[in-house]
Amino acid sequence: MLKNLYFFEKNEEKAVKRGMNLLNRAFESRKNDISDTFSVANPLART
What we know:
Layout: H1 2-9, H2 12-38
Helix pairs in contact: 1-2
């Protein structure tokens, strides 16, 4: 994935940052799904 981004960006640092942003965004949305799922059982699960 990062290799493909590298060819589009022609700039390794920018490509890595872009890849990390995509991973972080995916992780954040996943984390929100999980906390929404358990918010009824455990109100402290929400951050």
